[in-house]
Design a protein that fits this description.
Elements lengths: L2 H11 L4 E4 L6 H9 L4 E4 L3 H15 L4 E5 H7 L1 H10 L3 E7 L15 H6 L4 E4 L3 H16 L5 E7 H5 L19 H11 L5 E5 L6 H10 L4 E5 L16 E2 L4 H8 L4 E5 L23 E6 L5 H12 L22 H9 L8 H23 L3
Parallel strand pairs: 1-2, 1-3, 3-4, 4-6, 5-6, 7-8, 7-10, 8-9, 10-11
Helix pairs in contact: 1-2, 1-7, 3-5, 9-12, 10-12
């Protein structure tokens, strides 16, 4: 078994069953190994940024990493923007970067680069596979590193000769550390801050924006306590049957207005808010001067558990406030992007407006043109 086959079989054992790929010559044995390991589905992407973006989205929604295959340092560089997003979102993601054969690197071929340095800019874990016999163990460790709460980008560099050489064997999954429980003393200190009756904002992030965290946080949102979430959450469960939480505004002046008057800012899986950019004579921190910051749970902690414990302590009888199902009103007037969306949302209602009728006419015309192209072969 060669190194590429051992890598893919280890991925399958670890529950990583999809690999988004933009490969080149140095990754051809990885691509060939995909045929031998049907448990891992290869998805060809025409640009590295698409591959890393797809892997980021997959990890956010599946709560387990996808593999993304990059071609040497330049290919990795093309995908760095979405790997940056994955790092900021704390997405579990495994990057496999092909490299020149170990004996070829000293010739400084045109695509030779410092892959380790490029990967280090976006990864919490980086390793270079040195021998085929170690590829399986390296892969298992990479997956475990990516799965470490709250999620990380892990990069495994795979030289071409390590990929094609025999003598490798797959490894079994490594144990993954669970999210850390929040100490009772921390929950008690947060409860004391809430019991002061002073204005408090609970800023939610990460796992706090799933159902369990949202429902517990909603139980706390009474009187002087309000809820906000990160400006760009990695994943935010919303809609009917879930509590509604507004986002912290992107522009600093609007975010400052949302936080104005708060005497306590409680962080639940989120970081203390800062301005996205510096402005002359404006503070970088958005926390009001007379506001005390309390860290209820770090992103790698059991955030939902901490919120539940806090709600049980402060508001044991409170119920979450859930959004009720609602249908947007049937629009009237000009056909715009907004009225088209509202018409689609209310499409099972009898059309009663000019905007709705125009939307259906446009959709019907497009369908007829598509059918005509199929039957006549015309453009």
């Amino acid at each position: 078994m060669n190194g590429a086959q051992a890598l893919l079989r280890t991925l399958a054992r670890c529950g990583v069953n999809v690999s988004f790929a933009n490969p080149g010559t140095s990754e051809m044995h990885f691509v060939a190994a995909l045929d031998a390991v049907p448990e891992v589905r290869g998805v060809l992407c025409l640009f590295e940024g698409v591959a890393t973006g797809a892997a980021d989205g997959y990890g956010r929604m599946a709560d387990r990493p996808a593999s993304v295959l990059m071609h040497l340092g330049p290919g990795l560089a093309n995908g760095l923007a979405n790997l940056h997003n994955a790092r900021r979102a704390r997405t579990p993601l495994l990057v496999v970067v092909g490299d020149h054969a170990t004996y070829h690197k000293r010739y400084d071929a045109p695509l030779e680069s410092d892959i380790d340095a490029l990967a280090g800019a976006v990864s919490r874990w980086v390793r270079r596979a040195a021998r085929p016999a170690e590829v399986g163990a390296d892969t298992a460790e990479a997956v475990a590193a990516a799965m470490t709460p709250p999620g990380r980008v892990a990069t495994l560099i795979l030289p071409a000769d390590v990929s094609w050489s025999d003598g490798a064997k797959p490894a079994f999954p490594n144990a993954v550390r669970a999210a850390s429980p929040v100490p009772d003393e921390t929950v008690g200190a947060a409860a004391s801050a809430l019991r002061t009756g002073e204005p408090c904002v609970i800023l939610l992030g990460g796992a706090a924006l799933r159902r369990a965290g949202l429902e517990s946080a909603s139980r706390l949102a009474t009187g002087p306590v309000s809820l906000l979430c990160e400006t760009f959450p990695a994943r935010h469960e919303r809609g009917a049957g879930l509590p509604h939480v507004d986002r912290l505004a992107y522009l600093a002046e609007f975010a400052s207005a949302q936080l104005a008057g708060a005497r306590h800012l409680m962080l639940a899986g989120a970081s203390a808010p800062v301005s996205f950019f510096a402005y002359p004579a404006k503070p970088s921190s958005l926390v009001p001067d007379d506001c005390t910051v309390h860290v209820l749970a770090e992103p790698g902690d059991d955030v939902a558990g901490a919120l539940t414990a806090l709600a049980d302590l402060v508001a044991p009888g409170a119920k979450p406030t859930l959004r009720q199902p609602e249908r947007p009103p049937v629009p009237d007037g000009d056909l715009t992007a907004e009225t088209a969306a509202m018409s689609s949302a209310g499409c099972c209602q009898r059309p009663r407006s000019s905007a709705t009728r125009r939307t259906r006419r446009v959709c019907g015309l497009a369908a007829r043109r598509q059918e005509r192209r199929r039957t006549t072969g015309s453009r």
